[in-house]
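Inverse folding, one chain.
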């Protein structure tokens, strides 16, 4: 950005770029929300917490907690027209700008481990689609070897199959898209990936429902067990709803800064929330029929249904049981789905620090995108070697013997709820709720005298900061002690 624009804010704002329209913004923001957690975490949590009971709590939390926070975050970004740091500084002063920096740093550390896991998914897509992964006899042993195979320089084939290479290629794809800007890069990529993501998801669901014992999985997922309605269930539903929408770290604030003034924020947020929730719900309809099919084939009562073991051990075994041709097709499509879900999220995570450097330091977007991506990739190297290659990072004595990846992910979880709580306080105490309402009235003439206005006032002033404050405390207890020890 030329230095001459520094004294001309209107010219600079015009040159930042913006979304082409409502559809582009919704698909991009939904892409930010849809991620790996929708595919492997939501189905597991729903299954372990009463199926439909958890789903109801999750939807309730989306409306009570997440919707108002998302509306507030996007309205701050659009009003200020700057990155997270710039938005807080412009509307609240330099001290509040540190809250924006806190969110930016959180996003950087999330991307540092997120890209490693995305690299695993990319590697599995290649190994299943074009390799012999499904011929393996022990998928657990393969995964343990895979996550420790950082790089092998002894042969071209070894280097080509290295986890290091998969992760750096995934980060390079992310940097390439972000470097192209808002409309030509981020928006264009999400307009392609989000519809394909839905298409792949629906195709796998249709096929999975034809498998033996599939309906048992559907019943397990959707029929509520009222006995599962416990404090733990409410806690997990509240936590998953907030994390699922990528709130509290400035991503949606940054995307909001590229939103035109004539766009209706409240209705757009409703569609984004629905899109994210629908992907999570559909993921459950995909995963549980597949898992129950495997139980039927192996004549076992239980298989791992959580986190990396579900994605990288159990599901490849399921694809193996489908036979060589169908397994390769369905397995390849599944990991392509996971790659798309991950890429839409890594794009948004990289955009947060890139927007800060472009806005505040007036640096070239292209150069900043590649340099920041490289820095974050380097920050992710300890995560990459923490899966066994470096024993000191594999079992952290101060963190219940968990590995470095889990530690960083958990610390970021805490940061998101704290950031969301402080953002609500910022709107109420510093920016003032009336200024948020004035911003929301633009593009939404009926908002001024609506029930929604009254609800958002009450939710952001009282409900959201209190719930997020309590949730932050409970998450800290859960990470270091265990929530089950309290309730």
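Residues assigned per position:
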């Amino acid at each position: 950005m030329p230095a001459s624009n520094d004294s001309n804010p209107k010219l600079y704002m015009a040159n930042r770029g913006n979304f082409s329209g409502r559809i582009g913004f919704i698909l991009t923001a939904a892409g930010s929300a849809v991620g790996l957690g929708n595919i492997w975490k939501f189905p597991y949590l729903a299954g372990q917490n009463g199926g439909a009971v958890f789903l109801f709590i999750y939807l309730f939390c989306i409306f009570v907690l997440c919707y108002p926070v998302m509306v507030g975050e996007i309205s701050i970004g659009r009003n200020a027209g700057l990155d997270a740091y710039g938005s807080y500084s412009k509307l609240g002063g330099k001290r509040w700008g540190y809250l924006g920096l806190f969110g930016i740093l959180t996003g950087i550390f999330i991307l540092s481990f997120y890209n490693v896991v995305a690299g695993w998914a990319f590697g599995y897509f290649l190994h299943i689609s074009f390799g012999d992964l499904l011929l393996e006899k022990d998928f657990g042993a393969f995964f343990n070897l895979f996550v420790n195979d950082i790089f092998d320089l002894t042969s071209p084939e070894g280097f080509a199959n290295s986890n290091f290479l998969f992760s750096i290629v995934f980060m390079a794809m992310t940097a390439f898209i972000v470097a192209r800007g808002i409309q030509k890069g981020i928006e264009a990529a999400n307009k392609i990936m989000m519809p394909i993501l839905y298409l792949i998801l629906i195709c796998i669901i249709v096929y999975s429902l034809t498998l033996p014992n599939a309906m048992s999985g559907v019943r397990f997922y959707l029929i509520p067990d009222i006995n599962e309605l416990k404090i733990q269930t409410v806690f997990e539903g509240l936590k998953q709803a907030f994390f699922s929408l990528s709130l509290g770290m400035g991503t949606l604030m940054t995307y909001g800064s590229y939103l035109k003034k004539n766009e209706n924020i409240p209705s757009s947020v409703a569609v984004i929330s629905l899109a994210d929730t629908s992907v999570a719900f559909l993921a459950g309809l995909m995963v549980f029929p597949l898992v129950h099919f495997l139980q039927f084939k192996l004549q076992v009562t239980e298989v791992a249904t959580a986190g990396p073991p579900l994605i990288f051990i159990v599901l490849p075994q399921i694809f193996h049981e489908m036979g060589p041709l169908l397994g390769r097709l369905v397995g390849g499509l599944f990991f392509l789905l996971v790659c798309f879900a991950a890429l839409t999220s890594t794009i948004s995570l990289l955009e947060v620090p890139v927007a800060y450097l472009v806005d505040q330091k007036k640096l070239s977007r292209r150069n900043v995108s590649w340099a920041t991506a490289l820095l974050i990739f380097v920050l992710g190297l300890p995560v990459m070697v923490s899966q066994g290659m470096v024993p000191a990072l594999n079992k952290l004595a101060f963190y219940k013997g968990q590995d470095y990846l889990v530690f960083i992910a958990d610390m970021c979880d805490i940061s998101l709820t704290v950031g969301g709580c402080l953002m609500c306080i910022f709107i109420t105490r510093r920016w003032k709720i009336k200024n948020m309402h004035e911003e929301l009235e633009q593009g939404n003439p009926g908002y001024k005298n609506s029930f929604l206005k009254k609800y958002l006032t009450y939710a952001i002033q009282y409900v959201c900061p209190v719930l997020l404050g309590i949730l932050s405390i409970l998450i800290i207890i859960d990470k270091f002690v265990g929530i089950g020890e309290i309730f």
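DSSP finds 22 helices and no strands in the chain. The radius of gyration is 22 Å.
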